Amino acid sequence: MTGHVLPWLADYWWVLPLALGVIVLVVAIFVAVPWQARRRGYSFWLWLITTFVAYNPIIPLVLLALMPNRARKRMREKFRAELDAKLAARTGRPLVPAAATPTHSLAGSTMPERSLGDMPTVAPPEPSLGDEPTRG
Question: How many other β-carbons are positioned within 10 Å of the β-carbon of residue 9?
C-alpha cells in the first residue's frame, strides 16, 4: 500500500498542504461561531454542535446575532447592584425597587404627580408652518 502512496505524494506533493489548509480553514469557520457565542455568554460546546448539525455556519451566526448578549446582561446586573450599594451607603437607607413603592407614598416628595409623558395631548394655539398647503 505504501508503495503506491509514496510515489503519488512525490508527484503531487502540493496536495497535502492544500488539503491541510482547507481543513484548517473549514475548522476555523466552524469554530468562529461557538467562540463568538462563548464571548456572548452561551455554551461553546452546544454552539459547536449546533454549527456542525446546521452544516452552514452562517445560519447559527445570524441566530446568535439575534439573541440577547447574556454576558453584557450579567455585567449590567452586577453594575446595577454595585450602584445600588453605593447609593444605599451614601444615603444611609436601603433602596426599595421603584415597582414596590406605591405612588401615594410620595406625598412629601419633590417629584411631580404627573410626568410630561402623562400629560394629555393638546392642539397648539396657533398653526405651524407645516400646516400650510404647499404651493407649486
Answer: 12
Establish how many alpha carbons lie within 13 A of residue 115's alpha carbon, considering only the half-sphere containing its beta carbon: 2
Q: Which residue in this structure is represented by grid cell 461553546?
A: 44
Q: Where are the alpha helices (DSSP H) in 40-69?
A: 44-54, 58-66
pTM of the model: 0.47
**For every one of its 136 residues, what pLDDT tens digit does the chain have, with 9 covering 90 and above?**
667 888 877 787 788 888 899 899 888 888 889 999 999 999 999 988 988 888 888 888 888 888 888 899 999 999 999 998 888 888 776 666 655 555 555 555 566 566 677 777 777 778 777 778 888 6
Tell me how far CA of residue 44 lies from CA of 36, 39, 49, 51, 70, in angstroms.
8, 9, 9, 10, 13
- Which whole-number Å values give the CA distances from 10 to 4, 20, 27, 41, 123, in the listed order? 10, 17, 27, 48, 87
Grid cell listed for 66? 439575534
Cell 437607607, residue located? 93
Enumerate residues 6+ apart whose C-beta is below 8 A from 78. Answer: none
